[in-house]
Design brief:
The protein has 68 residues and is an alpha+beta fold. It has one domain. Helices cover 24% and strands 34% of the residues. The chain has one helix and three strands, in the order E-E-E-H. Strands 1-2-3 form a three-stranded antiparallel beta sheet, covered by helices on one side. A hairpin with a 6-residue loop joins strand 1 and strand 2. The longest helix is centred in the last third of the chain and has 16 residues. The termini are close together.
């Protein structure tokens, strides 16, 4: 099965008050999926930032229907 690319992928920072949020998102075929992750400096992912990014990408692809 051929992998399909999303039409748009983005990451942005939002600061509602004193908290910093990373918003990861992608759009495909008119559908948008976002994952919001708070910035927690003390939290260290077991696999590091790369593993966290792969997990977020997987969740986004599932949200827009690109993960089979």
């Amino acid at each position: 099965m051929m992998a399909v690319s999303p039409e748009r992928v983005y990451v942005r920072l939002e600061r509602p008050g004193r908290m910093t949020l990373f918003v990861w998102g992608m759009e495909h075929a008119g559908r948008r999926s976002e994952v919001v992750v708070p910035e927690v400096r003390a939290r260290v992912s077991v696999g590091g930032r790369a593993a966290e990014a792969r997990g977020i990408e997987r969740d986004l692809r599932r949200g827009v229907g690109l993960l089979y």
